[in-house]
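Researcher: Batch entry, complex prediction.
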Amino acid sequence: MKILLVDDELELVSALAERLSFRGFEADWVTSGEEAMDKILEKDYVLAILDVKMPRMSGLELRKRLEHLRPGLKYIFLSGHGSEDDYNAGAAKSDSYFVKPVKIEDLVESINMALGN
Amino acid sequence: MGSSDTVQGRDGLCFFGKVSATISHDVKNVLAIINEEAGLLQDLSLMAGQGMELDPERLVKLAKKIQNQVKRGDTIIKNMNKFAHSVDVPESEVDFYEMTSLVVALFTRMAASKCVTVVLKEGEMVAGKCDPFVAEMLIARCLEVSMDSAGKNHEIIVEVFTKNSERVISVHGLRLEVAENDLQAIEALSKNAGASLIVAPQDSLLEIIF
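Model: Structure tokens for the complex:
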């Protein structure tokens, strides 16, 4: 079960990936949408955790592009703020939407639900 | 009546809201990183309790990362405090260099989202009188317009200096024509701020003169 984490905050995404690995998930991370699009072609990811607001390419725009590259990929969105527009756009097609900071237990539960574990 | 009173109330509120939203977003990111680094410390401690070898160097690095984020958060909050106090008085003696530096710092996230790099050239104190809030609003709007004109993957360079006893905030790096409604908006703002504007995309230049 491979997971890809995408967030422009390097320290956040690297720490989160390591914590998920302690909980049995194979988690890779990148810090931009462009890197995510390259990475998604390398491995058979089943779920992507995306930051909503990123420079250059937002998480919502990235999801649109990944949907073409990997149909069937599941999504969880992380956001730095609880804008209603972001929530509606993010939650409409994703499995979950979290506002940072995230409780790891809640995230793990959401990942398991999205993956049908 | 101070010049603040002549600024359309909703425009001022919108500007205050936009800056506050950016700050809250930045603080959320800082808290999220601290949350994950502290969580990682907790995970490692629990695993050490179950017999896993724990590298002390790793703990030192994690503690340092948390301290750096606290420092980052402190800078954000200090800027927020300075910005919040800019509405205190309708006119005061200010340092235009410091004020521009604050606005550039507050708009770093917006610059990143527009894929534009904003460079403030090193400079000295440029003293003068103005309405701090209206002046910040004008500088911010001019920066936004300049970022849009510069376009993705380009750089704008900001300088603050005194020329013929006038205080000048100069933005270099414009590439495209400024939209007519943006031009009208910054001209109206400059009047409220008691400043004048030079907008010359053909020379890659925008200048605010106090």
